[in-house]
Every structure is written in structure tokens, then in C-alpha cells.
Amino acid sequence: MAVAPSSPTQRLRACMPPAAAFATHVALRASNEPHKAAATTATTVAVPVPTAVVAPAERRSDAQVAAPSLACTWEDVHGADDWRGLVEPLHPLLLAEVVRYGELVGACYRALDLDPRSKRYLNCKHGKKQILQAVGMADAGYQVTKYIYSAPEVTLPMGICRPCSKSRWIGYVAVASDKEAGRLGRRDILVSFRGTVTCSEWLANFMSALAPARFDPADPRPDVRVESGFLSLYTSDNDTAKFTAGSCRNQLLSEISRLIAEHKHEDMSITLAGHSMGSSLALLLGYDLAELGMNRGVHGGAIPITVFSFGGPRVGNLEFKNRCDELGVKVLRVANANDPVTKMPGVIFNETVRVLGGRYEMPWSKACYAHVGVEVALDFFKAGDIACVHDLEVYIDQLLKIPKDEVATASSANRVQSMFECWRWQMAMIRAGEWLRALGI
Q1: Assigned domain for 2 exists
Q2: Which long-range contacts does 361-369 make (Cβ < 8 Å, 24+ apart)?
Q3: Which of 276, 279, 280, 365 is labelled catalytic?
Q4: How far apart are CA 417 and CA 432, in angstroms?
Q5: Domain enclosing residue 271, as ranges
Q6: 169 domain-assigned
Q7: Does 170 fall in a domain?
Q8: Assigned domain for 323 exists
Q9: Would you say residue 253 has pLDDT above 60?
């Protein structure tokens, strides 16, 4: 009689394709050494990649995720067990999913119209049916169902200017096709957000005062506070918008609710992905959906909500973090150690403000900003291009860096098998420790 694996890594290992299918390796930058003046400085950690990363044509390779592997383990890859044992080292299936969602976020930048002479300036250049094909992702396996617009309600200091509240395109909602749903093992509802582009969005980013979210009218939770600028981007309304009306929040809740109802008899997941400011909106949306209970399936169970954040800042206070954890909102943060955006707001007063070796919180610590979720740490810097530390394309390139001199051989297959064995014993030790703590030993 077969016995189901008891831990995430055991389940992943049981469903992995043969090691020979690993045709390439991924270089993860993770160094704490000082940066050299003329090139990126980092320690390269080789991680094997299974076959199926959905990426633009120019970045396609033989490293793709095998359908049976992801279909039977997607809950763990999406954080069902908080990615324990899957981040250090980064599991190949998780790596493939992180890259895939990063590319889907990158589609927002590639489709954004930056020509001031265009009638679609700072909006999407393509229609919903053409966008993924137009940016080189025709095989992404998603159908875009709605474009999302935001109008931050901000003013310049001293009231010297009218509110900067023009509505701009910030992302899209998509749903997995039938074929992709079969590969993923569930119907995935995706919301993808770009980062900061317009002046009003930059102003919103610097509105660092904490404000109550109050998303649930029946239980406003005034202690749960988020950055007021991000909150403005998410909730501000604009009835004069060129392409749509209503707040970013109302657009998203309406469309996600419709898609959940349409696919209510299927296994589903809600994936929210964003870069920079977009990751903040993704986290606010995830919290909002869970707080309102909109992620409830037809049988009463919760539909998993996972946020993939790339170069994201802190969004709310410690109460916000704790509430997200309580609601089961899973967040995986890909963060470059040299990216200043990931350290804001709350550069000084943040989740690390504690005393006595970190055992006790300061009286004001709950008013400080705190990161949510699990971090995938990168470390890259280039002296000739300082802006690269926050660039989404560079983030993805660092995850996809493949050593030219490495080829999948029998010896590399043995290393893969050895790595899985280490993960299996690591998870066994974690479980044993939990049992001992539960017994008070």
C-alpha cells in the first residue's frame, strides 16, 4: 500500500521528473562580499531547473516544468506550508514558478505606452486578446479578462497644485486556459501589477504615514494600518477616467468575484504578482480578499491566495502582518539586498525594533512597518548601472543565470538526488522539533 509523503519536500520529490530531465542550471546571486567597482559581485549557487518555465520567446530554454510535477504539488509551491525547506536552497519547481510570474508582471511594462504623442499614453498599447501575444508570451496559457486602472488622490505640498488623480493602466486580471489549468493542477486567477511610472504614483510612494485600511465595514480593525499612499492608489476613485471608472479596488473585487463564480466547481488559486509599487497593491488586494471572505470556495474551503512580490517595499504595520498571517495570505518576496525600495518605508523603525536579543518588543513596535511573508534573497549590483538593483528584468535574469560551462550529466543527476535527500531530512528534523515543542519537551 502506498503512503502519501508527509512533508512538502517529500511530496515534491515524489512528483519530480527523472533527474535526466534537468538540462540546465540556474545561478542564484547570494553574496555578502563587498561589491567590485566594475562588475556584479555575487556568489553563484547552481540550482537545477525542471522543464517548463513559461517565458517570452527570447528567454525560452529547455528548462521547463514538467506538467505532472507541478499539478500534484502546486499547493506547496504556492506556500501551503510557508515554503519551509523550499527556499534555502531554492527548489527548482518553486524557482520556475517565481520566474514565470515575474515574466507575467514584466508583460505590464512591455505593453505600457510611453509615447507622449499617443492617445493611449501611459495606458496599454494592446487589446486584452492581443497583449500577451504582442509582448512575446503567446504560450503563457492565460486569457486576460480585464484591465485595471488606478487614480492616486495626492496633492503637492502646501496645496499649490490641483490633485494629481488621472487614471492610468497599472495591470490586468487573467485566468488560466483549460490547457494551462490542466498543467497547473487548478484554475489559476492571476492579477499582475506594474511598478511606479507616473509622477502621481511617485508622490503616492512617499506618503509614508500609516492609515487604517478599514476594508471590512463589519469589522474595520483600526489597528491594522497601511501606507497611506498605497492605500490611496488602491481605493481612490476617478469618475473622469478615459478607459474605465471606479477605484482600483472596486474593479478588482468585481472581476475576481465574477471569475470565482464562473469557475466555482473547479479547484482554484488566486495569484497576485507585482513589482515595486505593484507588489504593494498585490498585497493589499490579497489582504482585502481574505478579510472580506471573498476567497471562499463553493464547498466552504478557502481558495489559496499567494502574492509573488519582486522588489517590494513594506506595506503596513505589525498588526497588518499578523492579520495577513492569520488570514492565510501567503507572500513570497524576491528581494535584492542592495535594492533600497525593499527597505522602505520604515528604514529605521521596522520589524527589527526589539530589545533583549529580540525577545521583547518596544512599546511603539506595533506602529512600525513590517515585511510580510518569506524572503528569497538575492544580492546583485553593477557599478556602471546603479538603477539595475531595482529593475525587474535584472531580478529575473539573476534567477535565470545559467553557467555556460555546466551540462546535465550523470554526476549532476547524482547531485540533484543528493540535494533532495538533504531536503527530506531537513523537513523531518523540522517536524520532529515541532512535535517536541508541542509536547513541552
Answers
A1: no
A2: 365/318, 366/223, 366/317, 366/318, 366/319, 367/210, 367/225, 367/317, 368/317, 368/318, 369/210, 369/227, 369/314, 369/315, 369/316, 369/317, 369/345
A3: 276
A4: 23
A5: 8-438
A6: yes
A7: yes
A8: yes
A9: yes
Q: Are 76 and 86 in contact (CB under 8 A)?
A: yes
Neighbours of 56 (CB within 10 A): 17
Number of domains into which the chain is organized: 1
To the query of whether residue 325 is one of the catalytic residues in this protein, the response is no
Q: Where are the beta strands (DSSP E) in 70-122?
A: none
- What's the CATH code of the domain at 268? 3.40.50.1820
Active-site annotation holder among 25, 91, 371, 390: 390
**C-alpha cell recorded at residue 180:** 494551462
User: What's the CA gap between 385 and 405, in Å, rounded?
Assistant: 26
Using pLDDT thresholds of 50, 70 and 90, give the confidence band for residue 184: very high
Average pLDDT along the chain: 77
Q: Are 326 and 291 in contact (CB under 8 A)?
A: no
Q: What is the pLDDT of residues 94-104, one digit of tens each?
A: 999 999 999 99
Q: Active-site residue among 76, 188, 288, 339?
A: 339
Q: How many helices (H) and strands (E) does the chain have?
A: 13, 15
Place of cell 489559496: 304
